[in-house]
Amino acid sequence: MDLAATAPAIQPMKRWRAWLVFALVALLVVGHGIDIAGQREHWPFSHYPMYARAEKKKRQELLSLFGTMRAPGYRAMVRLTDPNFVPPLNEGRLRVILMAAYRRGTTEQNIADARRVMADYMRMYESRRVAGLHNGPRMTEIHLYRLTWKLRPDGSHGSAPWKRESLLTVKWDDVERRRPTTAPVELPVQPPDDESP
Amino acid sequence: MNDAVAVRPVARPRATSWLARCERFWFKPTGPGNLGFARLVFFALMFWFHRGFDYTIWGTLPPSFQNAHIQLFDLLGIGMPTVKGVAIVQTVFKASLLLACVGLFTRLSCVAALVSGVYVLGIPNTFGKTGHGDGILILAMLVLAGSRCGDAWSIDAVRRSWRRGPAFAPPAHSGEYTWPVRCLWLLSALVFFAAGYAKLKSTGFIGWAWSDNMANTLLQHKYKSNPPTDWGVWIAQHPLLCRLLAAGTIVVEVAFPLALFSRWARRTLVPGMFLAQLGIGLTMGVWFTQFMFIYLFWVPFDAIGRFLLRLLGPQFQRRAVFFDGGCGFCRKTVSVLWHLDVLRRCDLFDVVNEWPMIASRYAQLDRAAALEDMHVILDNGRVFTGFDAYRQLAWALPATWLLLPILYLPPVRWVGWRVYRYVASHRHDAGCDVPAAQGERSSARLPAQAAVASREEPTDAISW
Prior knowledge:
Oligomer: heterodimer
Order of helices and strands of chain A: EHEEHHEEH
């Protein structure tokens, strides 16, 4: 059988299929067109504004959470970057949640939203710690800081910010006094059980 | 003068010409191989990328964290995810990705992957920030769900070959295999054009490209993204290089739609954009992994396949395969074999209908024996039968290469021969004879088959 000699047949497109394709093309173009023209986002369409705003400042500002940690003979303020504390919140995801809540911190609503996020974070951190799901020490306070680095041409001093600006603080006692703002998580929420100085 | 007028080609009306161009762009008939292979790789990458993510974790987070809005979710009434709900949908999602990859129930799998993907991939985008990578995947799955991407490189295609029997004709070319690829090109063009336009609209060319913007951005990511290399810091120390890279980025992004129409643009802009995104990962630690999946559809897999065929084909000996053309089961088996023979190294011979020609070319072949067992003869004249013939074929079929080490295990050969003998001896019980409507083949086969003596399992002398 000489298969190579057989030329492939041509199967024409059905008219209704062609119109369906054009409808799909129109959806893609119009969906993106609206977002591009309005510089807005209608997921899954987008105007893809990645890095569109020019970075003119020679500094880097980041919102970051810190926890006041206590253990017998130990007290420290620790930057909360470990995704195991409250998965799946790695530092980047936590930062964007804080940014969406706090924004510039100019309205009562922004501050209330940010405090709620901080309280919920501390509650989840503690409940997971008590359940033995991470090795972090007991957290008694949570702080929202704005960290600022001056950009050095060689990128040095990455770990030490130039300025730390305390924006908000939430204490564990305040968290416990208030009614929970969230639906109960699946892990038991208990107060810290280990006493420390 | 008159002659000149007479030879001038008749100008076609512009509208018709545009329509023809449009139709050619979207619906130029092509084979199903390119789209099918791209589908296979796309869903394989999707499965690989998402396999380790447990999306149920988003269901454990408090509502205060869910502070980014997706209008589509508002429209569909999707609120805070629950662990149980996400667990069910993510199972459907991952299973659909796998099925769409191997091409089993391809259309249904693609639709299921799309619907479950909207939920599973959308949820993380409601926490803090709506990202861009998952959106492009959803739109790509939308295109594939409406396409006939399962017509090649799929289990569905093999199943169709089995059902249909030996057509032995190359698959029909159709615009159905062109438009999905073009749609994904269009999607890429829209995405990258939008990114370039956003920069121009937000900052302007000079402000974005001819300023310290790139240097500052590179240095900022040194502080927050932990990039895998220090190349970003090095580039930031060279202002002119920063500005050229920034200007190049905007030019490539805004000009990207040209790649839809110009081969020259395709060969420069697409690799240029790919390298730019790779560079962002290496210098800034920000990886556009999901975007990378869409580049697949710019790869001319069919051309690469033809190149590999020319390169690899001669490395493999040709295999002459002799089958009982009067047996429906054998015909279906051979039809699947023909489908899998992408290197085109197998020549198929119907012993019932082509015996005179076979006898003249392969004098060593016994007709009765060839009707009893499948025979394979290599270029060097070595003859293999039954299970050993199938094992020989596995060398020529890329889809079965992974099985080769297993096929050569001694117990597998022992079992393989017994299974082969059982199937071969019962194939007529299963009503495998070709119906009378298909011609004289059945009647031509029967006397010869009656004369065939049962054969013992061959010795190792004729095995590989």
